[in-house]
Prior knowledge:
Layout: H1 57-60
Amino acid sequence: MRPEFTCRFVWSPGALAMWDNRCLQHFAINDYAGHRRELRRTTVLGEAPIPVGAEPAAVRA
Length: 61
């Protein structure tokens, strides 16, 4: 892992972290001993992904 491509989130009461699992890798470090970690996954409805190298729909017309 290159440091310039990492994000270290420091938790505090009421904190919220969000990321897009389609374009990154999540790795939780177990540094919250004595505290409960709560995780909720959500999927946002959107357009179907365009494969790498494919032309966008607007260009194909």
